[in-house]
Specification:
Blueprint lengths: L2 E10 L2 E10 L6 E7 L7 H12 L3 E4 L12 H13 L1 H16 L4 E11 L1 H11 L6 E5 L17 E7 L7 H13 L4 E6 L12 E2 L4 E2 L2 H18 L2
Parallel strand pairs: 3-4, 3-5, 5-6, 6-7, 7-8
Antiparallel strand pairs: 1-2, 2-4, 9-10
Protein name: Carboxymethylenebutenolidase
InterPro entries: AB_hydrolase_fold, Dienelactn_hydro, FrsA_esterase
GO molecular function, one term: hydrolase activity
Length: 239
């Protein structure tokens, strides 16, 4: 197996975006693609590594760019500043995710009828909002994502299957918010699952997360279990 990568430029609302595509070049026919929506820092090494990991599973990995020009924040202050416009304008967020979806479908390595999306933290919210927009894709997976509804998706049916992988003690997405999301997904007639991991907080998949005061701590068991659950889900929705 040899994993190849290339940068892909695309645009949304006049912003030049730069994704990274990863695929196993031993597979010649078009195959399923999985978009990776990054956490609040932007399309960093963590997101690109996840695209590589997906390529090693036989998918085309697509680490998308939310901020433009592959910008990566250097710390919490800058990360929050970069994320803020999308939290304030969820239609902008949804449009940027749809632009990424349209771009990945155009790649020659990709079977355009079989596309899913995964996301981490802010990226978890991004993939949930992509589903909330009514976008036609096979499935979305949110890892320790944010749950607050966008306010512009009422009465829209969710077509993508939804898997939420969540730390039950996450201070940024409380049990009450988790229940609210479950009710929201039910009203939208979604095919949904929520896996909640006990004794687990935010950013549990990130090995460098170690700030209990902020509520971000890596947890190996939840990381391993959530990746396995994602793998099972993708096998089901992309078969």
């Amino acid at each position: 197996m040899t994993i190849s990568t290339r940068s892909i430029e695309y645009q949304h609302n006049g912003t030049l975006l730069e994704a990274v595509l990863a695929w196993d070049n031993a597979i010649l026919e078009p195959r399923s693609a999985v978009m990776v929506a990054p956490a609040w820092a932007g399309r960093d090494a963590f997101a690109i590594n996840k695209a590589h990991a997906l390529a090693s599973l036989g998918y085309v990995g697509f680490a998308l760019d939310m901020y433009g020009n592959g910008i990566v924040g250097t710390g919490p202050e800058e990360n929050a500043r970069l994320m803020s416009p999308f939290m304030e304008d969820r239609a902008l967020l949804q449009g940027r995710m749809i632009a990424a979806l349209e771009t990945v479908r155009q790649q020659p390595e990709v079977d355009a009828a079989r596309v899913a999306a995964i996301g981490f933290c802010f990226g978890g919210l991004c993939v949930l909002d992509l589903a909330r927009s009514g976008a036609d894709l096979n499935g979305v997976v949110s890892f320790h994502g944010l749950f607050m509804p966008p306010g512009n998706s009422n009465a829209k049916k969710i077509r993508a299957k939804v898997l939420v992988l969540h730390g039950y003690d996450d201070p940024m997405a409380t049990p009450e918010q988790m229940l609210g999301l479950a009710n929201e997904l039910t009203l939208a007639e979604a095919d949904w699952q929520i896996h909640a991991y006990g004794g687990t907080v935010h950013a549990f998949t990130n090995p460098v997360a170690n700030d209990p005061g902020f509520g971000t701590v890596y947890k190996e068991a939840a990381d391993r279990r959530s990746w396995q659950s994602m793998g099972n889900f993708l096998e089901e929705v992309l078969k």
